[in-house]
């Protein structure tokens, strides 16, 4: 890529990203290349997406995996591991903006970012009902559920996904 002036506008990022051979996330004008994921990471994310797919279709929702961008206003663009969108209307061809569920499978390289930076930005989305973190080592979930008082943290082996009327179990996610 040619040299560019930073910070980069969101429009310039989206235009570049459509042609880029490397996936990069965007945060307030800066680009961050994404590392590859382990086989376990990919299999767990696929199991979760597969479990959500039938319920999502029945409700008219869309399920995406890690190649679909999530735009958070003009501040950030991320590639969540799994995302469910139930907002009506045709989606933008390259990103979504109103998920009801975002799932990040934790890895040592991204865990701190997933728990702090991404969580803080995801929770600003009025459509978001659940932010689910999947711990590969503990084989458990940490989820942040929207309540009238804000987001409440829960840990365990089950996650209720309200927009799909579905309970996701860790044993399903980790079935290899």
Q: Any chance you could write out the topology, listing elements then pairs?
A:
Layout: H1 10-17, E1 24-27, E2 30-33, H2 39-58, E3 62-65, E4 69-72, E5 76-78, E6 82-85, E7 95-96, E8 99-105, H3 111-122, E9 130-135, E10 140-147, E11 150-156, E12 158-161, E13 166-169, H4 170-173
TL;DR of this structure?
The protein has 176 residues and is an alpha+beta fold.
List keywords for this structure.
Restrct_endonuc-II-like; five-stranded mixed sheet; 13 strands; 176 residues; alpha+beta; Uma2; endonuclease activity; 4 helices; globular; endonuclease; six-stranded mixed sheet; single chain
Q: What does this protein look like?
A:
The chain is α+β, with helices and mostly antiparallel strands. 25% of the residues lie in helices and 35% in strands. The protein contains 4 helices and 13 strands. The strands form 3 sheets. A 6-stranded mixed sheet has the order 3-6-8-9-10-11, sandwiched between helices. The chain has a 5-stranded mixed sheet with strand order 2-1-5-4-7, with helices on both faces. A hairpin with a 2-residue loop joins strand 1 (24-27) and strand 2 (30-33). The longest helix has 20 residues, at 39-58. It starts with 9 loop residues before the first helix and ends with a helix. 28% of the residues are buried. The model has no long low-confidence stretch (mean pLDDT 93).
Q: Hey, roughly how much beta strand do the residues contain?
A: 25-35%
> In whole angstroms, how far apart are the ends?
39 Å
Q: Output the radius of gyration.
A: 16 Å
> What structural category do the secondary elements indicate?
alpha+beta
> What's the main sheet like?
6 strands, mixed
Count of β-strands: 13
Shape designation: globular
Taking all residues together, what is the mean pLDDT? 93
Q: Strand-and-helix sequence, N→C?
A: HEEHEEEEEEHEEEEEH
Helical content band: 25-40%
Number of helices: 4
Unreliable runs, pLDDT <50, ≥5 residues? Answer: none
Name the strands of the widest sheet in spatial order. 3-6-8-9-10-11
């Amino acid at each position: 890529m040619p040299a560019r002036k930073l910070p980069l506008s969101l429009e310039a990022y989206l235009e570049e990203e459509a042609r880029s051979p490397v996936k990069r996330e965007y945060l307030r004008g800066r680009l961050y290349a994404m590392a590859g994921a382990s086989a376990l990471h990919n299999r767990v994310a696929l199991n979760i997406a597969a479990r959500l797919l039938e319920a999502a279709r029945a409700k008219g929702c869309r399920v995406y995996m890690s190649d679909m961008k999530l735009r958070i206003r003009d501040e950030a663009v991320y590639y969540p591991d799994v995302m469910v969108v139930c907002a009506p209307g045709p989606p933008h061809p390259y990103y979504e903006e109103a998920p009801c569920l975002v799932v990040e499978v934790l890895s040592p390289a991204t865990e701190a970012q997933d728990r702090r930076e991404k969580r803080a930005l995801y929770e600003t989305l009025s459509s978001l009902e659940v932010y689910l973190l999947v711990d590969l080592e503990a084989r458990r979930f940490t989820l942040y559920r929207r309540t009238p008082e804000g987001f409440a943290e829960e840990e365990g082996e089950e996650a209720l996904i309200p927009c799909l009327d579905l309970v996701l179990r860790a044993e399903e996610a980790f079935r290899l």
